[in-house]
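Subject — a protein and its fold
Fields — amino acid sequence, C-alpha cells
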Amino acid sequence: MMIQQKQEGSKGSFYVEEAGIVLAEMTYSMTGNSLMIIDHTEVSDELRGKNVGYQLVKAAVEHARTNDIKIIPLCPFANSVFKKKSAEFGDVLRPN
C-alpha cells in the first residue's frame, strides 16, 4: 500500500488511493511553512483494522521531520496516535 501526499496552497492530505478511489485520507492545513494542523482522518471500512490510519500519521511525521515542521493534531484519531507514540513522534509535536 502506497501513501501519497498532495497539497494545494495551505491545504493538503496524505491518502491511499486504489483504482482512482480514495480509500483512506488524513487532511491538514499549513500555517506558514513550519506548522501543520491535522484536522481529519478517515479510513474506509475496506481498510479498517489494517493500521492504515497509523500509517497516514506516520507519513505526516516523516514529512514534518524532513521539512522542519511541527504538528498540531486536532483530529481526535491523530491526537490519540500522538499520545500513544509520544516517545516516537514527540519531536514533531508542537508544545502547547
The CA atoms of residues 31 and 50 lie 31 Å apart. The mean pLDDT is 96. Residues 36-43+55-75+91-96 form one domain. Residues 52-67 form the longest helix (16 residues).
